[in-house]
Amino acid sequence: MESFIDLAGVTKIYKGQAGSVTVLEALDLQIEKGEFVAMMGPSGSGKTTLLNILGGLDRPTGGTVRVGEQQIDALSSSELSRWRSQNVGFIFQFYNLMPVLTALQNVQLPLLLTRMKASERMRRAQIALDLVGLAERSKHRPAELSGGQQQRVAIARAIVADPQLLICDEPTGDLDRQSASDVLALLQSLSRDHGKTIVMVTHDAKAAEYAATTHHLEKGRLLEASAPTA
Ligand SMILES: Nc1ncnc2c1ncn2[C@@H]1O[C@H](COP(=O)(O)OP(=O)(O)OP(=O)(O)O)[C@@H](O)[C@H]1O
């Protein structure tokens, strides 16, 4: 069966005044639908670059990237941003919530780009907040929430438009151990119970244990994938 995500011969080269830097080199990668993948590797190995290419935030210099039915390296930049808004949810280390908006309003943000009615936006945002266990915090602003709660609001925002793919860049990098494990258990359940495909960059081997597969990047190349030991 075809994989959900297929990268073939992906190369990324940055050309600058100091010369060109090859960040990803002839990279092949397959990810299955509903798989939770951790991406590890030393600083500068190309993890964020790879994540950005997978999520359609950046394009490869060479090679092909298919996500679901869509060959995303072939899209124009406006097609790519439209594709992104319908198919990818992003979760970052520092949550990126709007401080003046309530949790419920933050979660609704991705739906403002659609033609959805306000009542439907509100309904979906409430469902997403409920799913991350924060229904009773819907009127709170980010400053009134803990780091772990803010990250869960960011996850609700990432899933509210029902994307198939979640891209997470160090989602627990700023959290204490307990909040981190709550967030990781939530991501795990989104893949297991809701069929979301999740790709997470992390420096933390304990965080990677929540994923079904761990890939290691080194100098722009993937080493052999490993299954969790736990
Ligand atoms: N816009 C750019 N122009 C030139 N070089 C870049 C650019 N973006 C990234 N790089 C280089 O690409 C390499 C990989 O960067 P990337 O951010 O993907 O690594 P990373 O594995 O995510 O690192 P970290 O763990 O430190 O975040 C680095 O050497 C970086 O300097």
Automatic annotation (TrEMBL):
SUPFAM superfamilies: P-loop containing nucleoside triphosphate hydrolases. It comes from the Bacteria. PROSITE patterns: ABC_TRANSPORTER_1, ABC_TRANSPORTER_2. It holds the Pfam family ABC_tran. Keywords: ATP-binding, Nucleotide-binding, Transport. One of its GO terms (molecular function) is ATP binding. Residues 5-230 form the ABC transporter domain. Gene3D superfamilies: P-loop containing nucleotide triphosphate hydrolases. The keyword Iron does not apply. This is ABC transporter ATP-binding protein. It comes from Luteimonas fraxinea.
